[in-house]
């Protein structure tokens, strides 16, 4: 019975580590997506400003 409890505890620890890694990875992906979104918004604003200026 003790071995089963040890295996269960090890499995739980592994799962907790995996969850932690996934959370870290997800946070990094969210940060990257925010940067990409900001860059896209800046490009769009620049394109709109250029369009408003019209032809030279």
Structure, explained:
Residues 1-26 are annotated as: Disordered. By secondary structure, the protein is mostly helical. The chain has one helix at residues 2-53. The mean pLDDT is 95.
First and last CA, distance: 83 Å
What order do the helices and strands follow? Answer: H
Q: Estimate the strand proportion.
A: under 5%
Helix content: over 70%
Task: Note the main sheet.
Answer: none
Query: Kindly state the mean pLDDT as a whole number?
Result: 95
Residue windows where pLDDT falls under 50 for at least 5 positions: none
Q: Given the C-alpha coordinates, what overall shape results? A: rod-shaped
Number of strands: 0
Number of contiguous helices? 1
Structural class: mainly alpha
Put the structure in a nutshell:
This protein has 56 residues and is mainly alpha-helical. The chain has 1 helix and no strands. The termini are far apart.
Features:
mainly alpha
List the helices and strands and how they pair.
Blueprint: H1 2-53
């Amino acid at each position: 019975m003790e071995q089963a409890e040890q295996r269960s505890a090890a499995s739980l620890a592994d799962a907790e580590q995996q969850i932690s890694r996934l959370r870290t990875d997800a946070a990094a992906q969210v940060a990257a997506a925010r940067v990409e979104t900001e860059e896209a918004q800046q490009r769009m604003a620049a394109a709109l400003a250029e369009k408003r200026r019209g032809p030279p």
